[in-house]
Structures are given as structure tokens and as C-alpha cells.
Amino acid sequence: MSATTNNSRPPIGVGVVGCGYWGPNLVRNFARQADARVVAVCDRDADRAARVAREFRVPTVVTEPAALVRDAAVDLVVIATPASNHFEIARDALLAGKHVLVMKPLTTRVDHGEELVALAERQGLMLAVDHTFVYTGAVQRMREMADAGELGDIYYVDSVRINLGLFHGDINVVWDLAPHDISIIDHVLGGRLPLEVSAVGACHAGSRTENIAYVTLRYGPELLAHVHVNWLAPAKVRRTIVGGSRRMIIYDDMEPSEKVKIYDKGVSIAPTSGADEVYRQLVSYRSGDMHAPRIDMREALDVEAEHLLECIRTGARPRADGAAGLRVVRILEAAQLSIDSGSVPITLAPAPAAGSSVVPS
Amino acid sequence: MSATTNNSRPPIGVGVVGCGYWGPNLVRNFARQADARVVAVCDRDADRAARVAREFRVPTVVTEPAALVRDAAVDLVVIATPASNHFEIARDALLAGKHVLVMKPLTTRVDHGEELVALAERQGLMLAVDHTFVYTGAVQRMREMADAGELGDIYYVDSVRINLGLFHGDINVVWDLAPHDISIIDHVLGGRLPLEVSAVGACHAGSRTENIAYVTLRYGPELLAHVHVNWLAPAKVRRTIVGGSRRMIIYDDMEPSEKVKIYDKGVSIAPTSGADEVYRQLVSYRSGDMHAPRIDMREALDVEAEHLLECIRTGARPRADGAAGLRVVRILEAAQLSIDSGSVPITLAPAPAAGSSVVPS
Amino acid sequence: MSATTNNSRPPIGVGVVGCGYWGPNLVRNFARQADARVVAVCDRDADRAARVAREFRVPTVVTEPAALVRDAAVDLVVIATPASNHFEIARDALLAGKHVLVMKPLTTRVDHGEELVALAERQGLMLAVDHTFVYTGAVQRMREMADAGELGDIYYVDSVRINLGLFHGDINVVWDLAPHDISIIDHVLGGRLPLEVSAVGACHAGSRTENIAYVTLRYGPELLAHVHVNWLAPAKVRRTIVGGSRRMIIYDDMEPSEKVKIYDKGVSIAPTSGADEVYRQLVSYRSGDMHAPRIDMREALDVEAEHLLECIRTGARPRADGAAGLRVVRILEAAQLSIDSGSVPITLAPAPAAGSSVVPS
Amino acid sequence: MSATTNNSRPPIGVGVVGCGYWGPNLVRNFARQADARVVAVCDRDADRAARVAREFRVPTVVTEPAALVRDAAVDLVVIATPASNHFEIARDALLAGKHVLVMKPLTTRVDHGEELVALAERQGLMLAVDHTFVYTGAVQRMREMADAGELGDIYYVDSVRINLGLFHGDINVVWDLAPHDISIIDHVLGGRLPLEVSAVGACHAGSRTENIAYVTLRYGPELLAHVHVNWLAPAKVRRTIVGGSRRMIIYDDMEPSEKVKIYDKGVSIAPTSGADEVYRQLVSYRSGDMHAPRIDMREALDVEAEHLLECIRTGARPRADGAAGLRVVRILEAAQLSIDSGSVPITLAPAPAAGSSVVPS
């Protein structure tokens, strides 16, 4: 949170669509930024919108997204509605010349995501996606270590996000929880698409939507990522392991203080055509110290709000931009297709503009 | 360990083939049984065999399995050699009229396993497989709860077995570690084959064998099991979650005392054709007490040795019999095939004698 | 939080003195009660008071406690100032005919506490102390088990409350943290004074106030309680163990879900005058199941606010009344005296009205 | 374990008195040393002695300590009998010209300990005490950090050793468990006596010996150590915290891998005579990284046996010598006196030869 206001520039007007579970958190975090003002909120439930407006002294309350999008005081439209509405509202906002931040997942279809990315590009507007974890100190630290080569070659990422969660009627556990894991993986790996996605899931208790699923991302012969999401688990687990040839990381978001543990462990193998006995002796293990660096514990949404306002000011590309959101949707769509077709692996077509989709660190 | 010897019957003669890592544990545990005597050990490395013989006062030491198998003093042949030798030694032992206990996996090929099962049946001899965990108090407790219906419908089993492990030159992590998880799953589910198996794995650090793998077992539209095995992880995890409609279990083998935690948690959903709002209200969560029952902490190998001797005496079928070993090999072979063919799902043919393969509780 | 307002009775007017760290939490929790209204806040720092008033729409803002105490709209004065001011403000409030809730510790001197208790009695007003933990589901559960005899004879209570905390300039770690532990112990044991108190502490880093201390409470030859408080610890620990002859409890407030674990463990000894060998055989251990009951996780301050309003309505004695607050101050004063005199044990004179000091469960 | 034998010197003959719980561990660890030979074992229970002798091929078995002490083949007498017998056997052994290793506690009386230390000095023989933890990689690392000034000024040591333990008929929990904690504290602090000791304990379940106790060691106005020992706790805790001005350590012996965690945390206070507001601002906290160094996990008894044999060869003073054993007995005796006299603090007379009691690192 910037403590001082730069008087030479007017605050950025923020309008938030959707006042359900996540919307008020966004209002609160934009409201505390020195160079922004939440000028409008929108919810189909007028009472809900009014409550949020009262709490944060938001002047304008509307029940139709279209009204908010047309509001001249709004520079940035923040979309916190159910995923199925993201595309239409975001398109209208971009067409109306507004910058846009969309909750995850960016859209529910790849073609919709492509259209939004292209539209934002044409309009010269910011399109950002709320991959919240990308703005945590923990994930930033992992990205920095990967970039600096401190992990060596990355061999795998294993991510588990399970608990006794809220069954949704219209979205399954893959679309609900896996965007967190996939966006973390995408960010740590520097923003690139896997070659292939496969997934398996199951529906329980008469539900028509998957409440447990396993998603595998194959990035190459040596690099595998795997996600376990589950709404029907007895305990809450939020843990990502990154295995590299030089170091390994366990990121446990349930730990109150030491969330990121870096292990100076690894193995090196000198391949040989000799007999078994010889072969085994060429494997050497390394098991050294563990290190838990101090992590920036600032609230991710506060970091994100400040960062996005800065991007709007400077024209810089946000840390989680439309391209990142689109990569995640490509993976989710492939995972869903794999589930629906009996978990056969789905090959991802190379992204049309892969070069421009690299996440800035 | 039986404290008293029944004088009316002579002790059962045990011969152990393979004095490497696991063999001496088997010698020690059979040696402490009142109604057994370890009469012979065998290892191609004569020194290694001699050391074990000295420590446990074993009279006969040989370097060829064939010699041990022909030894008239031997009633039970215990095979603790590398997996690729299991079939031949076990077949010879059965042909020589000996009862057989084989380390996991039973064999490295399904046809070999089928031949052993059929041969033991024809000869009227015991064929057992060392699925060690099946003999722990923890897994027994889980089986009993499942059998008694205390878990309700079982929705999923999720098993993780990872650490910085020993790379083997001749066997991958699936054949090395997953037999533990699969035999636990098989036992808890009452001994039945999944309909379909898929798996994915990766080799690292120049190794030619997979050191990380994910295996999915589909038992039906609602019941899924999943195994994560990994030799290249920074921390040791040994954890199996069983999710049921009435209760859920976390079995954490790394916990020093409370290994099995039973959660009185669940969800029930009354499906409806109404709108979303209505639908969600019909989901009801239950989040109650957690209970960690006192578990029998007796060493599994001791329980197993006593049980197998009793089976030989009475002709009863062992808790982990040849059929159980064969089911695990079927799954491993399918998993390997899935890995080798780009992780497509492999349908398992119905077992020829499914009726007889039910594990006795 | 009561969801409905009883229209037949006017809301109770609440005035809060002190808008520092804890005050706003109290304002928020009283503000959400259906049958209360926060009508005034007070802080010597006018800005701080105004900020809180704005957030919670409190009509009256004053900077002098005397002004709030005289406010006719105020029925209950909540005192959240530094401990040294508690006595004077509470006395004035009681003299002005107001009910009073004081943060812990009730006062900094026993005679002050005695005067408040007597004054409240004379005036027929409620005097309550904010022993927050007494209003948690966890501590309530422990009290209920103790009352029901489920623990058997209580042998000891061991309480640890350590972290890298805030050094206070005017109060030491005993007066700051130990009231939590002592009020928990007092509540679980049914509200009785120990016979004897001893304590030891140390000042560090040039500070003139103790930042680490150990306090021992002797309740009888068999019953001991012990408290470790520490502002200079590398990790946060909040753990109370209750050892009974039938069952033992570990209450770990840092656990996210299973805060209270009940162990069916114990020992029974049949004393004997025989030789050592015989003596030992008469000791029998019991090590059974562990049980973590579902605990009411409602915010303690919400429970407390609702309870105190009900006490005002009905004239019932609050769960943590003036007598409870006074017992804690007696112990703190004795602990301080013990520290100051080289940790000699201090005998507590029997409380003047011990009969009336029993905490209602 | 030394892998090679130095042929130029004959092995040291070791005799072990006491074949109960701990004795066989000592036999095993001395037996595996290349330059030692266990030549005799002794136990009043002839069967027990014979069993140990058989397992480790010890040639001489006696039932009287005097016989072992007189055995010309014995160079080092290892005493693993109940504590009350330590003095007499150790004295006889020293008088017979043997080196001596005594289990903890060295003796049950200070004057006995003084006599042994003086006698060993006069005879020019090694007198060592089995403070096992002093030989762990964890405690060594802590000692090295303290010596190198990496902790800054040490402010406190807090040690907890609790579980559902074995009630002894003849020794209480202070004499049984606290020697571990006190010897760790003594070693980390460089081998010096506290100025003052106080303790409190309680007996339960009809037992005549304390099964829970708290012992406080005051080393100076700023340096405090505290020990909690308890045989009647529901869970096993083995944890020592060292708080220093520069760094803090948590040594948790129950952790399977990261036993020692070093926290770069602290506080510095610039004292001031100003008002409270100013005072607080001069306190500055530091909360940095945590580091878990790789610790030597070799079995402590193996390290100890090798070290003591080396001391016998070279005449060097062992890491835990008679003086260290005596310091621990002084503290235990003072703690017992404090318990017996209502927990008044006991001042320790300065050790007669404090200069010579410094533990070599």
C-alpha cells in the first residue's frame, strides 16, 4: 500500500462487478491504494451491492454490469462474477476502453480467452487475471530461484490442493481449484505451455460435477507437473514441491511461518553401459542443509492491486497478464477434454503467439 | 511371536534365499517364531550368506537356490532376491513340494504370476507374497472399517510414497515402491481388480528408469485410486487417504504414534433439477470429531511370519496370497504399459478366477 | 451473535475506553450484537478514537474516560486501556452506576481488585474481566470434562505461551501473557486459589522488565500448575497440557483444526512395601485411543459479548467475573513478589470470600 | 567406527557391568570399534549376562562386579548398573587401575562424585560419564555455535523432556531424565556451574517418587536455564530452545531429519530514560531466515566409544569427563534439596577446581 498520494496525477477509478465471496476483498484492497478510488460496485443482488458500497463508501451502486462498464468515472473494471460471465463483461469493458482485471479462470473457453487477449492488444488496454498466488512472496521467491538457476534443471512440480470444500453446482473442482496450482506452476516455469495434458476425475454423492481430479502436465521428456485437487478431503493441504537437479523446494501454504523450505538435496547419475554393480556406484546422492528464507508476508491482493495500478500508469505488462490467463484456460480446457474422453492425453497446439506470452518476472 | 512351543508338532523348516537388504529381516522374524526353525540360507555372495548364518545360527549355507530348494529340512522357501529371479526360484520350490513366500512384487510378468498361482493350487501348497503393510495394525484397522461399512461408500484412495530414495539400475520406482501402495489399496478394497489403469512417469539425471510416477486405478465411475511414487523428493512422505461417504481416514506412516486418523466428515448431496440456488442448498456438509484409535504396533514381519506358519499348519489361505500378488502384478504391468505408450489408459481383462481372489480379512 | 432483536427491550448502550490494539475488536464484537449499541468511544488520541467511531458509526467520541463514564446513554463501560488505568476508570464507572468489563489483568494490585469486587457487589452491578480464552470452545470443553470427572484426579497443568513478542515498557511478560494461562488454569480447575506461588524471570537486552518467566502454582501435594511465558522465543507456542489420572489433554491453540486432543492414557500404581522388583510390577500403564472432539470455533469475543449482555439482562454472574479477575491478580502479584525476592515461594492467604468465587460453568 | 585396526597397538579390553536396558547397547558399540575388544560382562542375573555374552561373543561372564574389576584383560570398566551402585564399583575399578565410564548420573551424592574425580586424578586414569547427548551431532553443533559467538549473548535455555514413561521405584524423574537436559545445557554453556538451583515436583498415583518436576538453573542475572521433566505426559516431547541475542535455536530430537533449526531472530533494545512512548520505539526486532544445517546422524554411542578409546590412548580428557558428571550431580542434588525443602532456591558453592572443569569442545 503506497502511503503517499502523488498529487500530480488523479486517482484511477475502479469499478468492481460481483459482490459475492471474493469481490469485497478486491474492493477493500483497491480502496486502500493511495492512487485509486473505488467509484462503482455492481451486483445483481442490489442489497449485497449496497452493503459493500456502504462499508467502503463507494458512491455508485448498480445492478447491471453494462451500467458500470459505461461509467465514465471507471478506468479499471474488476470482474468477480461466476466464470461463465467473465468473457462477456470483459469484452464489453475492453470495447468501452476500460482496463480489465478478471478473476481466475480468465474464461471458460479458449476461443473466448484468445478474443480477449487480441482485443486488449488492439485497444492498447491492460488485461490482467487474478492469479493471486503469483503475487505472494513465496511464489515470487520460487520464480526468482528458478530464473537464477539455483534449482538446476527442474524435474517436476507436484501440487496438492485439497480440503472439505464447497461443492459448486456449475463448476467442477478442476476449474475451481486447479487454476491456483497451474498458475503457480506456469509462473515458476517462466510462462510456457505444456506439450500434453491428461486428467482423471470422479463425481460423488450424486453430484454431476467432478469433486476430485488429478491433472498431469507434460512439458518435455524430463519435466512433468502434476496437480491433485479435491473438495472431499478430511484435512486441508496446500503444498507444492519443486524438484530440481540442484535443489528442491517444498512450499507449504498451511505453515504459519516457514512457508518455503529449500533443500540442498539432489542426485547425480553418471550413466554407464556397465553391469548393475557398476551402474549403482555411479549414482551419487547429495543431502545437505535446509533453508527457510524470510518471505514477504504482505497480503497478495494488496501487492497485486498496487502492481496493476502501476502497470496502468506505465503501460507495463502485468505479472499475470491475459496471456498467462489464456495459458491456464488452455490447460483447463485440455484437462476437461481428457476427463471427458476417458483420460486420454491431449496434445496442446503451440500457442499462436508464444513469444509474447512470456511472463515478466 | 508365539511364546510357547507346541511340543506335539515339529517346527517348520524355513529356508531364505537372498541375504541382501530385506533377507536378514525375514531370517530374524522367522527365527523368533516358536514353531519354526531357519534351517538354511542362500546368497550368491557366500560371505554375505555366512554372516547372516552366523548371527542367527543357521546350520546350512548355500550359494545356489537350487540347493536350498532341494534341502529336505526346508518346508517353506522364502525368496528375497531381486524381482527378476522370483519366478524361477518360486516355481522350482513349488515343484519341489515347498511352501513359498515371495517378496513384492510377486513376479515381473503377469503370465509368470498366473503360472505360480496355478502351480501352487495344483500342488496344494501355500503361495504367499510379502505385502508387508497388509500385516500392520494400521492397514488391518482400515480394512475392518471398510468391511464393516463404517466408511460408507468408498469414493477414493490417494496414496503418496516419496523420499530421496535409492535409484535402482534394473527396476523403476513403480515396480519398487508402488507395490506397497497398491497392496494397501487392494486390501482395503477387499481384493478386487480395477477396470482400468493409467500411469505417467519420468526419468531424470540421465537414468534409464523412471524415478517419479503417478498411477491411477479406476474401479468404477465413482471409485478412483491414485498413487504417487517418487525417489527424488526432498522429504519423506508415506500417506494414504481414504475418502468415504460416511467417514474419511488419513493413514500417515511417518507419525510416531497416531498413524491412523478417522474423520467423521462427509458430504451428502440431494440431486435436484432446480436452479443453481436451489441445488447448492441441497448439499450438506458434516464435520465432526477426529478419532485416532490405538493401533497394534507389533512389527509387521513378526505378525506375518506367525500368520504364514499358521496357514501352513491349517491349510488356510494367507492374508496376502498368490492371487493378491498377481492382482498387484497385473496393475504394475498395466501401469508400465501405460507409461510406455504415452499414458493411455489400459483396460484390465477380468481376472480369470475373480471369485477365488477375494482376500480373507 | 443473536440474529434477531427482541423488540420489547431497548438495546444496551456500550461505551469503550481505549482504541489501541484490542479496543476496536471489542467495539466490533459488541456492535454486531442485536441487543446492544456501541454509543461512545474514548481515547486520549482523538484521531484514533475518531477513526474507530467512523468505521463502526459510533455517535459519541470523547478523549476523557470521565466523559464517557458520565454519558447517560452508556450502560456498560468496556475498559481497554493500559493495565495501570483499569482501577480508576472501573471504580468511576461502577460509582456512576455502570456495568463494567475490564481487559486482563483486572488491576495491577490486589487491594484495587478487592475494592472493585466489593464495590460492584454493593452497587448490584456486573463486573466482568476479559479472560478471552475462557470463552473459547476449547477451554469450555476442558472445563466440562474436568467437571464431569472425565479426567479423573487432575495431577498437573502445564501451559506454555511463547513467541517473539512485543516488549512493553511498563509491564513485564508475566502481567502481559500469564493472565491468559492462569485464567485458563483457574477456569479448568473450577475457580480456586493455589496455596503457594513461586516464579523466576529474567530481563534481557538492557530491558528493565522481565521478558521470560516461569510461574509455578501449587494447589496441593498432588496438584501443580506451571506457566512458561516468553517474549523472546524463535517460534510461537500456545499449548496447555492437563494431566489427569484417567485422561490427559493437549490443547494446542496453534493447530488450525484439532485444537483439543484427549488421550485415553494414564498410569495406576498400587503402592507396596515390598522390594523394588515387586513394586515395579504393580505399576500399570494405560495407553488407548486419542480423540479430537469437534470444538465450537465461534470467535471468543463474540461469545463473550453475547454472554455479558445476557448477564446484564438477567443479573447472572458472568463466566469470568470480578472474583475470577481478582484470583488472577492475586497470583500475578504473588508471582511478581516471588521474582523480586529471588524466587522464594509465596503463600497465598485464603481468599476472603472463597465460597462466592467459584466460577459458574 | 574406525574401519581399520592399527596393528601396532593391542586392542583395549572393555568390561561391562550391568546387562539390563542400556548395557547391551554399550557392549554393541564397543564391540564394533576396531581397537577394542569386549572381554567381560557382568550381571547379578547370570542368564541375562550369558545372553549378552553369547550375542556378542564375550569370553568372560561373571556375576560379581569385583570379579570383572580384577580381570587383568580389562582396561576400561563400563558401569551400567542402577545409579546407587555407581560409586562403589567405579571406586573399586579406579583403585584397581582401570579406566572408567559410568552411566548418568555419575553418582547419587556429590561427595561420592568428588571422591571419584579426585581418585581418577591421583591414579592418572580416565573417568568419563555417559552424557550420551553430548556426543550427538546436534548438541555438538549447538556447542560450536555458542563457542563461535554465533548466538551472541545466551539469554536462556529451555529444555522439555516428557512422555508416558517408566515409573522407577528407586529414582525419581529428576535423577532419571534431567541428567540429559542438564548435561546438554552444561555442554552448550561451556561447562560451568549455575549460581543457584530451584526445583519443584510432585508425586502422583500413590507413588513415593516425583514423576513431574521443573528445575531452574540461574547462571547470572541475564542467563537462566529451565528443565521440565515428566513421566506422565500424553505425548513425547524432547525439545531444547536456546535463546541468544543474535540467534536462537530449537533442537527437537523428535524430528526425523531437521533436528536443529537456527533462527536468525532477535531483539535489541536501546535503553532510555525517556517516556514510555519513546522507550518502545527503541526496541528493534529482527526476524530473518531459518536454517536447518545437515547434522551428523551417526549413533551417539558409536561416536562416544570411539572418542573414549582415543582418550585412553592419548591421555586426552573426554568430552564428558568426571568433572562434567560431578557438575550435573551437584545440580541434581541441589534440585532434590530444593524440592524437599518446599522449592526454596539453593545456592551452589563454587566448585573447588572450577578452572579444571571446563569442558573441552
Question: What is the compact description of this entry?
Answer:
The structure is a homotetramer of 361-residue chains. With 361 residues, chain A is of the alpha/beta class.
Descriptive report:
- Four copies of one chain form a homotetramer.
- With 361 residues, chain A is α/β, with parallel strands linked by helices.
- The first copy, chain A, folds into two domains: 12-133 and 301-323, NAD(P)-binding Rossmann-like Domain (Rossmann fold), CATH 3.40.50.720; 135-249 and 328-357, Dihydrodipicolinate Reductase, domain 2 (2-Layer Sandwich), CATH 3.30.360.10.
- Helices cover 32% and strands 28% of the residues of chain A.
- The first copy, chain A, is built from ten helices and 15 strands.
- Chain A has helices at 23-31, 46-56, 65-70, 86-95, 110-123, 137-147, 173-188, 276-281, 300-314, 322-340, and strands spanning 12-17, 36-42, 60-62, 76-79, 99-103, 127-130, 154-164, 196-202, 212-218, 224-230, 232-244, 248-252, 260-269, 283-292, 346-347.
- In chain A, the strands form two sheets. Chain A has a nine-stranded mixed β-sheet. Chain A has a six-stranded parallel β-sheet with strand order 3-2-1-4-5-6, sandwiched between helices.
- The longest helix of chain A has 19 residues, at 322-340.
- Mean pLDDT of chain A is 91; it is low at 1-6, 274-281 and 353-361.
